[in-house]
């Protein structure tokens, strides 16, 4: 087995070992409920405040020869999205993914979150030494997606509260949920926007950067052993991003959770917060190993990081534009994804990673997860209650729309009533009544086309497993809340 390579944080504290298993002390707790009515807080080096939660056993993720494909052999359109990836995520450590758009960062996140759809996975992807339970894996995983999908009429506090109602564990009291919401708003700096609506392109609300923080907070309302952040810095300035990643770093180290983050051109201060680096290109691995060994690895291949240059840009551009970092004359020694991927597979670092994956398989008994629990922490009846209340709030959140709908229904009812007034009881009257029913149904159906765009947040919540999936939830949860108004149209006619 390869000798261990010890990673050290800037303060010299031993963070993680490159080689060697991870064992959990017997007193580690996996109880993610809030045990105190007055939660304790910890002030980070960035000056932000985060909650102090019990240290958990974490999530040890190992991926061996992980490959993701789409298409079918029958149609001869099989394509590899990810190809032969080998990496690990250890409790208490953070991994940074860098690469140009389309390199496969989101695909890795989906695979780790067990949210693949038409994609097929091959190879080994183990969580704590075993296959994940697709029904309960979302309870152990925080997955922040790139897009911001929220219900515009709700305030920031109401958005967090709904997430707490759906995702916090069984037995959590209302007081604890409210405290959790306040804690998350304090951590993300959204206290002053607590009563401001989220908004969208038609309804003015919080800014784009604040909306991204809401997206992050919706997931961080629940405590989990695995944190997945897919380009969470989109819309945020460099200072806010640094504070955010610093807070997450504190959570990862103090609560012993695993974390993987994909970013676009982060600053050098942010890069130093990560323990491991993953460089992707066209779904293949150009590098995975300790962050403090990344520059030396590429310099051994013949490339040079310029002085006062951002290391993140160096890692992100080295595969696509290697000539920018080759100081000698002639062609660079490596060019293109295939050559960089093959060079990494032949490297000593890759061999150590593979040895670690093969020789240090986690023991599932050393870790605790939610595989033995129910799919959702709340019952179906509770979900129906909360989503019905949410739908009603959305219905009455814009009284102008409600009044316009009522007036339009009354006007259309008077028009139709005058046209079909005093129908006879013969065959011609029957045909006229059939025409009236057809026209009324047509009016209701075409009036509901505007509700289709409101389905987008529903699908986002469904993939995030906030509540049970089903057509009933579409009607109840309010993602098609305009459908309720269509009943007014029917009554008016």
TrEMBL record:
GO terms for cellular component: membrane. Residues 1-31 are annotated as: Disordered. SUPFAM superfamilies: P-loop containing nucleoside triphosphate hydrolases. It is found in: Membrane. Keywords: ATP-binding, Membrane, Nucleotide-binding, Repeat, Transmembrane, Transmembrane helix, Transport. GO terms for molecular function: ABC-type transporter activity; ATP binding; ATP hydrolysis activity. The keyword Lyase does not apply. Gene3D superfamilies: P-loop containing nucleotide triphosphate hydrolases (3.40.50.300). InterPro entries: AAA+_ATPase, ABC2_TM, ABC_transporter-like_ATP-bd, ABC_transporter-like_CS, ABCG_dom, P-loop_NTPase. Residues 61-307 form the ABC transporter domain. The chain crosses the membrane at residues 406-424, 436-460. Its main location: membrane. It is a multi-pass membrane protein. Signal peptide: none annotated. One of its GO terms (biological process) is sorocarp development. Residues 19-31 have a biased composition (Polar residues). Belongs to the ABC transporter superfamily. ABCG family. PDR (TC 3.A.1.205) subfamily. This is ABC transporter G family protein. The lineage of its organism: Eukaryota, Amoebozoa, Evosea, Eumycetozoa, Dictyostelia.
